[in-house]
Amino acid sequence: MNESFCMMGLAMPDLSVFQYNAVDNIFSLTVATMGAAALFLFMARAHVDPEYRPALLVSGLVVSIACYHYFMIRHSWHDAYSLVDGGYKGTGAAFNDFYRYADWILTVPLLMVELVAVLRLPAAKASSLLTRLVIAAALMIALGYPGEVIADPARWTERVVWGGLSSIPFFYILYVLWTELTNSLDSQPPAARQLLEIARLVILLTWAVYPIAYAIGGTPDALAAKAGTADAAAGIVGARGVCGLQIGYAIADMTAKAGFGLLIYLIARAKSTKSAAGDAYGTV
Q: What's this model's pTM, rounded to 2 decimal places?
């Protein structure tokens, strides 16, 4: 099979038991991670100063939304496959990967909100920064989706074009976040500066996974199909593309949302005037 993944009824490639379980387990881990992060962030709001509680509230909403969508993604994964003769074959039911894009539509702008909220920038600067970031995030997702759903190797060039267009706002967001975080360091309390430097690296490294996963999900299938290899006909390369795409996105989402949410909490705590000794979270 040449298709890289099933969306809107396209055929799914055959998977080995290991490949199927690897994706299923990463989905399960993502659901648990997002749910645990949501519980922690909502509870942790009581342990930072009031002005930083909105940042933790938004961060908790981000991982709550992601938890729901990954639960639905895993459920769709189960529906799309059945165990046949020692391997997993498509049932004919569509694997609805749009849940992930529905998640990004909501959570990526909210990620921008939580970061700006914890920085506590002047109101005019925060408003301008947030407007630019949210617009760029919306464009990034809107331009990436048409390429994501292209599974026909004959249209691989179209996938690359949409991915390239989506990369323009993607790199703009990274540039703005990196420069604004750098510029804000001098205005932040010393305890928060190192955490903000870590936040810069987390954003850069985790966001870099998304275009890599996007490429894995499309490029190998197209090249194998054009070469006419047996692997392509058997769906083996397609299976690798599916697994790489799903595992890559899930790991990136856990880090960019749950991991980043923990950083937001640590920054808010470092900037709060509360005494750590009297905090029920102690040395968290």
A: 0.82
